[in-house]
Amino acid sequence: MSSDSGNKTRVTMKDVARHAGVSQSTVSFVLNEVTDVSIGADTRQRVLEAVEKLNYKRRPQGMARSVSHPIIGFLVDEIATSPFSAITIEGAQEAAWRHGHLLEVAMTGEDAEYEKAILEKWRLQGVVGVIYCSILTRAVTPPEQLAQMRNVLVNCHAEKMPYTAVVPGEVLGGFAATEALLNKGYRRIAFIDGEMWMEAAKDRLTGYRNALTTHGVPIDEALIREGNFLPSGGYKQTLTLLNDGLIFDAIFCANDLTAVGCYEALKERGLRIPDDIAVMGYDDQEIAQHLNPALSTVLLPHREMGQWAVDYLLSPESADTKRVYKLECPLVLRESI
Predict the structure, then answer these.
(1) Where are the domains of the chain?
(2) CATH classification code of 170-298
(3) What angle do CA 288, 337, 196 make, to 5 degrees?
(4) Environment class of residue 126 by beta-carbon count within 10 Å: exposed (0-12), middle (13-18) or buried (19+)?
(5) Distance, CA of 311 to CA of 237 (rounded, Å)
């Protein structure tokens, strides 16, 4: 199964909500014709016009209630601490329903005994397969019961036993972000990373280094700083770069929250983005488009990974040789570079 299946951009309910100037809940209520919620006629019309203009494809409707749908299990360690798990689940649910399957989600909190209990329940129920997902891209040791069912790992990979997994192509994402800055003429590019024990931080840094080397730009280690993937780290490290008297014309922040702090520090010093210093983020969180100027960033394909995992589970390839698939992290260019 080719990783290209994760590269197609599709219109989401979030896009419809943004275009119509309403919340995703409002879009959901309108599309599902919920009548016990007070939504004005004008608002309903805006939503429907946005759906038509964007060519938003709703989930298949009209399946008979009496039909017993096959179930796919979705096991995830955390949901509430990050928006990304919810996006992956939504993508998997859409793909499952498209195939006439239901998605059953369980959050484990990394409790090994709870994982085993859920997997045993699903085994006895005869689920079609199980998606095993981690909130952080990392190596995992899945419980033995997982190998007894058709399975796929999402945003993680197995340390020992062979499992098929799908993860973001972080090295290429870091390369693309840095290359976008280089193509704009920036040469002194600082990099504020996350905590280096995280695979995402290591891989994005590798992509940054590879891009500079490929374009013949010397790597200045003084321009590389370790942050914490939070605004506080972006703010602190941006000020440190400025206070150290280093010359740089762009900053690549390893995630969008880091870029929020970077923006704050630059504006505090009276520096304009991108006129004085350009800023690139990573992961395309909701806040990126609301910063001033709107933040250029890289999209993490969480929705696409969820969709890919379901399509893989239901394909003949799921019995083939196990490997790790990496999905493209596409650039989202806005006004900050």
Answers:
(1) 3-54, 71-167+302-329, 170-298
(2) 3.40.50.2300
(3) 65
(4) exposed
(5) 42
Tokens matching residue 281:
């983020």
Average pLDDT on 194-216 reads 97
Instruction: Using alpha carbons, list the distances in angstroms from residue 102 to 63, 130, 142, 228.
Output: 12, 12, 23, 37
Q: Supply the pTM of this predicted model.
A: 0.81
* Superfamily per CATH, domain 71-167+302-329: Response regulator (3.40.50.2300)
Residue-wise pLDDT tens digits, 77-127: 988 777 888 999 999 999 999 999 999 999 999 899 999 999 999 999 999
CB 107 within 8 A of CB 76: yes
Please tell me the CATH superfamily of domain 3-54, with its number: lambda repressor-like DNA-binding domains (1.10.260.40)
Sheet with 278-280: list strands edge to edge.
224-226, 189-193, 250-253, 278-280
Q: Any residues with CB less than 8 A from the CB of 197 and at least 6 apart, and which?
A: none
Sign of the alpha-carbon dihedral angle for 166, 259, 230, 222: positive
**Structure confidence at residue 47 (pLDDT):** 85
For the stretch 259-270, pLDDT in tens is 999 999 999 999
Cβ atoms 180, 251 nearer than 8 A: no
10 Å CB burial of residue 180 (0-12, 13-18, 19+) is: buried
Q: What is the secondary structure of 20-63 as a DSSP string?
A: HTS-HHHHHHHHTT--SS---HHHHHHHHHHHHHHTPPPPP---
Task: Please check whether residue 313 is in contact with residue 279, taking contact to mean a CB–CB distance below 8 angstroms.
Answer: no
Strand segments, DSSP code E, in the chain are: 71-76, 102-107, 129-140, 151-158, 165-168, 189-193, 224-226, 250-253, 278-280, 297-298, 324-327, 331-332
Rounded CA gap, 3 and 11, in Å?
19
Q: Facing residues of 189 across strands?
A: 250
How far the first Cα of the chain sits from its last, in Å, is: 36
| pLDDT band of 131, cuts 50, 70, 90 | very high
pLDDT value at position 23?
Answer: 75
In 3-state terms, what secondary structure has residue 175? helix
